[in-house]
Amino acid sequence: MRDNDLRARHKRRFKRTTDSHHGWPVAPNLLDQDFTATGPDKKWNADISYVWTREGWLYLAVVIDLFARRVVGWATGDRPHRDLALSALRKPRPCAARQPG
């Protein structure tokens, strides 16, 4: 392998991203799976996703206006902490009031 400049690929370790046994309060589910909105800025949805890069895990928090289906805030970081989600909420946002389509 060394003569041919080949290297074994290492299996990636499982990355646990959710801690369901925490002491923090859990927010109520206000949407109850109803993702329709009657106007802009009435309902927002947010999520944190992660991508493996050469430098390690990159976490992406995104906030979407459910009426316009447009991103109203986002942030990236190296850890999925609450500050990442708060950063996405605080980012300057484009006008989400445009009609979808």
SSE series: EEEH
User: Helix fraction?
Assistant: under 10%
Write down the oligomeric state: single chain
Number of strands: 3
SS class = mainly beta
What integer value in Å does the Rg equal?
Answer: 19 Å
**Given the C-alpha coordinates, what overall shape results?**
elongated
Description:
This protein has a domain at 44-90. Strands 1-2-3 form a three-stranded antiparallel sheet, with helices on one face. It has one helix spanning 82-90, and strands at 44-53, 56-65, 70-77. The chain contains one helix and three strands; from the N terminus they run βββα. The N and C termini lie far apart (54 Å).
Task: Sum this structure up briefly.
With 101 residues, the protein is mainly beta. It has 1 helix and 3 strands, in the order βββα. The chain has a domain at 44-90.
Key words describing this protein structure:
single chain; 101 residues; mainly beta; 3-stranded antiparallel beta sheet
SSE layout and pairing:
Layout: E1 44-53, E2 56-65, E3 70-77, H1 82-90
Antiparallel strand pairs: 1-2, 2-3
